[in-house]
């Protein structure tokens, strides 16, 4: 059961920060070190100071990025740089973006407080594995600031768009926030506090399953924070603010939802012999060769995409020694049999990324878990042309190119209680940090 609620969000005071593009950032886990430094230099009130503070050689237990984030947050509240919404609200959020030249899309969703559920309840469904070191770091930040600084991104199914219609009916006129960021994404947010609209949305969401898209670490960290607060309080208050997590919910049935492909670039392969590799691959794949000159690059891209459109598994392979790109189209029965013998469940056997990970990288190339977990050996990118150029230039030994995981595949895997390989999905655009913060006072309730 999805128990969602409005909350009194903490947000930037636009009388002091009129252009939110100066202070809003992407999620912490997609920010590079260079981008982190640039955001710090961009504006003294940039959200980076809370979400991903810079480390210094003088850091200590008493003075570190997390304690400084808490100090900044308190200071900005005193200065009224950050202000609380006067009423509990759901935050209806539209993003305009382009995922291909000349293609414009709008994704809609809303930010709410969602009652936390353990994964064992089945109401909130993950699809990715988490890492303890990341959760420990996020927990330390959450304890210091006592807030959800950024929202978990999750999905629900609503073919009739009833939730969106209810929010649109209750949102009123002009958006509470509206700006275009440096990436060209346009953001519009309405604080919906109309009681009828809020009640309608809560009722519609009650029986829906929630599928985490991005933010698995944040969700599990919120569970750990809740459990710590329960122990400290010594009593159960089901409406305590820490019983909830800030979540951005988006309808998985809408046309504005995009998942980008995540291609693999490999180094440290030594003397990879492409002909030997392709010979080993031939029992499992139909192999077609495409030259990379005279339009061949466009043809192999189209071949991969065509495979995906036909619900077939098609994976591109390129290394400089091969002199061409090869498209490996899975022989369904042979690949299915190989994966089944490895004990891989049926919903996972349909994923291009699982075939690449299990059959190609591990079986045919013989790469170990340790090799694939080492970031110096493997890199990930969403850019076809950039990935091809990275191999051509010699920065990597080989590249493997795949179609994006489809939204119905995410649903099927999560519904079965299964976990996808690392970097299986990249939902685009990401949900920005800094639009709204959810304070978690132990004395405050969410009703």
Write the layout of secondary structure elements.
Blueprint: E1 4-5, E2 10-12, H1 33-42, H2 48-51, H3 65-78, E3 82-84, E4 90-100, E5 103-115, E6 124-125, H4 132-145, E7 147-148, E8 152-156, H5 162-170, E9 177-180, E10 186-192, H6 195-205, E11 210-214, H7 216-233, E12 244-251, E13 258-259, E14 263-266, H8 274-281, E15 285-290, H9 296-309, E16 314-318, E17 325-330, H10 332-341, H11 346-349, H12 352-364, H13 369-373, E18 378-381, H14 384-392, E19 398-401, H15 407-415, E20 427-428, E21 438-439
Helix pairs in contact: 3-4, 4-7, 5-6
Distance between the termini: 16 Å
pLDDT < 50 stretches: none
CATH superfamily grouping of the largest domain: Conserved hypothetical protein from pyrococcus furiosus pfu- 392566-001, ParB domain
Main sheet properties: 9 strands, mixed
At the third CATH level, what is the topology name of the largest domain?
Conserved hypothetical protein from pyrococcus furiosus pfu- 392566-001, ParB domain
The fraction of residues assigned to DSSP E strands is: 15-25%
Shape designation: globular
Number of domains: 2
Number of helical segments with 4 or more residues: 15
Global mean pLDDT: 94
What is Rg?
23 Å
Instruction: Kindly provide the name of the CATH class of the largest domain.
Output: Alpha Beta
The percentage helix is 25-40%
* Count of strand segments: 21
What structural class do you assign from the helix and strand content? alpha+beta
- CATH-level-2 architecture of the largest domain: Alpha-Beta Complex
Structure characterization notes:
The structure is a single chain. This protein has 447 residues and is an alpha+beta fold. The chain has two domains: 4-258 and 428-439, Conserved hypothetical protein from pyrococcus furiosus pfu- 392566-001, ParB domain (Alpha-Beta Complex), CATH 3.90.1530.10; 261-403, Conserved hypothetical protein from pyrococcus furiosus pfu- 392566-001, domain 2, CATH 3.30.1760. The chain is built from 15 helices and 21 strands. The chain has helices at 33-42, 48-51, 65-78, 132-145, 162-170, 195-205, 216-233, 274-281, 296-309, 332-341, 346-349, 352-364, 369-373, 384-392, 407-415; strands spanning 4-5, 10-12, 82-84, 90-100, 103-115, 124-125, 147-148, 152-156, 177-180, 186-192, 210-214, 244-251, 258-259, 263-266, 285-290, 314-318, 325-330, 378-381, 398-401, 427-428, 438-439. The strands form five sheets. Strands 1, 4, 5, 6, 8, 9, 10, 11 and 12 form a nine-stranded mixed sheet that branches. Strands 15-17-16-19-14-18 form a six-stranded antiparallel sheet, with helices on both faces. A two-stranded antiparallel sheet has the order 2-3. A hairpin with a 6-residue loop joins strand 16 and strand 17 (325-330).
């Amino acid at each position: 059961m999805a128990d969602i609620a409005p909350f009194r969000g903490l947000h930037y005071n636009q009388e002091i920060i009129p252009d939110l593009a100066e202070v809003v950032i992407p999620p912490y886990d997609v920010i590079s070190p260079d981008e982190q430094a640039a955001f710090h230099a961009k504006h003294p009130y940039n959200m980076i100071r809370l979400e991903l503070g810079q480390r210094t050689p003088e850091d200590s237990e008493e003075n570190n990025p997390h304690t400084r984030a808490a100090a900044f947050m308190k200071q900005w509240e005193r200065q009224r740089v950050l202000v609380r919404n006067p009423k509990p609200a759901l935050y209806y959020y539209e993003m305009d973006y382009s995922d291909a030249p000349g293609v414009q899309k709008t994704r809609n969703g809303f930010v709410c407080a969602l009652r936390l559920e353990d994964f064992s309840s089945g109401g909130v469904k993950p699809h990715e594995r988490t890492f303890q070191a990341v959760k420990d770091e996020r927990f330390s930040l959450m304890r210091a600031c006592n807030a959800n600084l950024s929202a978990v991104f999750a999905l629900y199914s609503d073919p009739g768009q009833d939730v969106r219609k209810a929010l649109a009916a209750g949102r009123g006129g002009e958006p509470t926030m509206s700006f275009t960021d440096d990436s060209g994404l346009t953001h519009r947010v309405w604080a919906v506090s109309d009681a009828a609209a809020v009640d309608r949305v809560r009722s519609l969401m009650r029986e829906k399953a929630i599928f985490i898209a991005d933010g698995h670490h944040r969700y599990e960290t919120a569970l750990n924070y809740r459990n710590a607060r329960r122990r400290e309080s010594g009593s159960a208050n089901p409406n305590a603010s820490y019983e909830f997590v800030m979540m951005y919910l988006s309808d998985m049935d809408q046309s504005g939802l995009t998942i980008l492909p995540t291609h693999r670039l490999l180094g440290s392969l030594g003397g990879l012999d492409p002909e030997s590799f392709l010979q080993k691959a031939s029992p499992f794949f139909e192999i077609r060769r495409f030259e990379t000159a005279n339009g061949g690059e466009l043809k192999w891209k189209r071949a991969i995409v065509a495979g995906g459109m036909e619900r077939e598994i098609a994976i591109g392979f390129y290394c400089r020694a091969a002199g061409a790109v090869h498209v490996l189209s899975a022989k369904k029965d042979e690949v299915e049999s190989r994966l089944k013998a490895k004990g891989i469940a049926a919903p996972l056997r349909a994923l291009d990324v699982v075939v690449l990970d299990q059959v190609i990288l591990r079986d045919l190339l013989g790469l170990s878990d340790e090799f694939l977990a080492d970031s110096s050996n493997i890199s990930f990118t969403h850019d076809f042309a950039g990935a091809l150029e990275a191999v051509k230039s010699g920065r990597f030994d080989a590249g493997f190119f795949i179609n994006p995981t489809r939204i119905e595949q995410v649903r099927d895997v999560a519904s079965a209680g299964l976990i996808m390989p690392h970097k299986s999905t990249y939902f685009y655009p990401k949900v920005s940090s800094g639009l709204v913060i959810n304070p978690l006072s132990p004395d405050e309730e969410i009703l």
